[in-house]
Write the structure tokens for this entry.
Amino acid sequence: MSIAFSKVIGQERAVTILGNIIKHKKIAHSYIFTGSNSSGKTLAALEFAKLLNCDAAGCDQCLSCKKINRFNHPEVKLYTREKANISIDLIRDIQRSLQFTNTEAKYRVFIIEDAERMTKEANNCFLKTLEEPPAFTVIILLTSSFTGLLKTIISRCQVVTFQPLSYQSKFKIIKNNPASVDYANDQIKNAIITAGQSLKDAFSFLANSENNLNDNFMKVYEHFLNNDTTSNMQREFEKLAKEKENFSAFLTFFLNKVKLDDLKIPENKKRIENILKARKYFERNVNPRLIWAWLYLHF
């Protein structure tokens, strides 16, 4: 694995594919990186851009790598969605940039996040770009779904699939982040469980850990397991019920915590079904206290 791709955790298959592309110098004009949110697509795209332009396998030390790391390389651009959809104006902006020749990059790289959110007009405009791709230019579409992309666009791109991150990969990513140095392993574990598939949400839960929300979730969970109906359990619940977002996060935590336990236990399968029902009640604006009582009776 190259120096650059060593940063992409939990995506061995995708990294191998991208590494072979560089190794055999079979660079396509356009790629689609597809996978769930927080699976590492953006990081992989940026590291791929480094490898395309670095003489030392993505060294992170040369001027090109440093500029990409600082997001100020004039010919490696990351486009992030600022509105509900990606408009034709953004695609036209890319087309204007393509009219110029490379000045300091071997390959110009354009990375578009949430590409499935392109409007119909943006899709058609982008298709024209793919039909006449300029030399030494790579366009990477990042998407969590092919819905919203023209089939003709998909057929002209090389697709690289990113798998959902495992619990172990998420833990490693968070643990390796300098911002997480002060967090205990149990805090990280609970944040991952609470966030479900979203690594971004896991970092958010950790950032807000000063309010002891994750600890509160764990206490309530333990009360449930111990069939505790005392005032202690009621106090912990009252802390959750004050904020609607907290109760929603608790249901997600509850669901993922049970899933991590042994699913061969019959009780856990039934518990998962009931937690999902509780979530539906919550989405229908049923009072959290009523949901709480129902869930306790059916746990």
The mean pLDDT is 82. Residues 167-297 form one domain. The chain is about 55% helix and 10% strand.
